[in-house]
Design a protein that fits this description.
Arc Repressor Mutant, subunit A; disordered N terminus; 2 domains; alpha+beta; 4 strands; 186 residues; disordered C terminus; elongated
């Protein structure tokens, strides 16, 4: 079954309600019969911060789907983003060469700058929280650059800042909770 935007039923509803009501009967039928249904749709040209916001149309499309997969091409290359009711949210870097797709790895890891990778490696190798000065010494990077990059990495969730000290003295451990306790490896 295929449905285009022009064949949507015209009702006095907003776009979300129209999109959801168009796909809901098909989703219910698929669930009842244990069948997977794949609906292909475009993304907006401008993209979006949240990959599901990049879907052309309303959020009713992704709200109705059990799982949504977005294949995107941005400044950092191609990614395959997955979010759903019964799947773990994941963004994977992919490449298309000679007629086939290949997985490069976790998109955040693949697209991480060399400087950020060096910092994460230094902290992981150390096994203990480190100050910006210690990180600069271990990586050979300038202290001011390390401090600035650590603030960005903490903001993006790559690292966690612990302690109540100023950013000059703060430590940035790998895999800790917000109280500085190591999280159990999964």
């Amino acid at each position: 079954m295929f449905c285009s935007a022009s064949s949507r039923p015209v009702k006095k509803q907003n776009a979300y309600e129209n999109d959801y009501s168009t796909w809901a009967p098909l989703q219910e039928w698929a669930t009842r019969h244990g069948v997977a249904v794949l609906g292909l749709h475009n993304t907006r040209k401008g993209g979006a911060e949240d990959p599901l916001e990049a879907l052309s149309g309303s959020n009713g499309l992704s709200a109705c789907a059990d799982t949504t997969i977005v294949l995107d091409k941005g400044q950092n290359g191609r990614t395959l983003y997955v979010r759903g009711r019964d799947v773990e949210e994941k963004e994977t870097a992919v490449t298309f060469r000679i007629g086939s797709w290949s997985i490069l790895g976790n998109a955040a890891d693949v697209n991480r700058s060399r400087e950020r990778s060096v910092i994460i490696s230094a902290i992981t190798d150390n096994g203990e929280p480190m100050t910006p000065v210690e990180i600069a010494g271990a990586t050979g990077q300038r202290k001011a650059n390390v401090r600035q990059l650590l603030r960005k990495m903490a903001k993006s969730g790559e690292l966690h800042k612990i302690g109540n000290r100023s950013s000059k003295d703060a430590v940035y451990p790998n895999h800790t909770d917000h109280n500085g306790h190591r999280e159990a490896d999964e």
